[in-house]
Amino acid sequence: MKRRKTAIVTAVLLIMISAGIYFYYGFLFKEARNIESETPDYTITAVKLLEDYNTNPKKADSLYLNKTIEIIGRVTKETDSVITLENTVFCLFNQKLKNKSANTITRVKGKCIGYDELFQEVKLDQCTLLNKQIN
Rounded to whole angstroms, how far apart are CA atoms 122 and 90? Predict the structure, then answer.
């Protein structure tokens, strides 16, 4: 009887250890998404994106939040690693931008991280400049 209890306890402990290892490596250490190589889920203008968030924020979140989207708009502000399109879409890049593209129409791909009510901007991170300018 004692031998059987020991075997059951050992089996339960092995299962718990295996589950812990699976959780630790399977969920905690997932590779980060490579937004640059992903195909965009949506292509939209900066003005339309903000309009969607102003009209129905919950629906816009369900469509765009944590999705890879391609944004088209005029660059209205630019710093070392940030471009703002149409004063409404904040695009954060992983690296410093080399070429200045202020006041040009540009195409940017990034991951939508939501709407900032304080600044009234839609925020994207892990952005990539798809082309220097359009027109």
Answer: 6
State which residues form the domain around 8.
1-30
The predicted-structure confidence for 36-51, as pLDDT tens digits, reads as follows 888 999 999 999 999 9
- The pTM of the whole model exceeds 0.85: no
Question: Residues 10, 61: one domain?
Answer: no
Q: Are 100 and 127 found together in one domain?
A: yes
Q: What residue ranges of the chain have pLDDT lower than 70?
A: 23-31, 100, 132-135
103 shares its domain with 73: yes
Check whether residue 106 and residue 45 sit in a common domain. Answer: yes
